[in-house]
Amino acid sequence: MTQTLKGIFLFVLFVSVGLGAGYAARIGLAKASEPEPVVHGDFRTVLAPHQSDLVLFATKTCPYCAKAREFFQEHGLRYHELDVDDPAIAQQFKALGGSGVPMVFSADVRIVGFDANAYARLLPAAR
Question: Which residues belong to any copy of the Glutaredoxin domain (predicted)?
Fold first, then answer.
């Protein structure tokens, strides 16, 4: 009887450890594949063709894209919007590391997602 209980206990222990390790690996891989929300670099080549201070990669139906547009308009920031639903734009978006919208470029920052604090640092007074 004790041998059976010991076997059952070890089985449950190994299954629990295995499930826990699998879950931790899944979470770790998911986090590793997410782009950094704010990346500093030289993004002037993204802006140049559009003659704008900011480039916004977005979709018409994305609620966070709507919030980004509203933020830029409220703060008087000039931006050029590119619709990721257009196949040619989608190709450029992916080439720039895009995986989620909104994705905003300034001359020296890429911001993925809606982040009012990061956007505020784009304001002229914050530079």
Answer: 55-107
- With vertex at residue 37, the alpha carbon angle to CA 34 and CA 39, rounded to the nearest 5 degrees, is 110
- Alpha-carbon distance of 115 to 85, in angstroms, equals 22
Q: Which two tokens stand for residue 111?
A: 């911001």
* pLDDT digits 0-9 by tens, 21-41: 565 555 554 445 556 899 999
DSSP class of 56: E
Q: What is the reported pTM?
A: 0.73
Residues 52, 80 within the same domain: yes
Which residue range(s) make up the domain with 81?
Answer: 38-126
Same domain, yes or no, for 61 and 116? yes
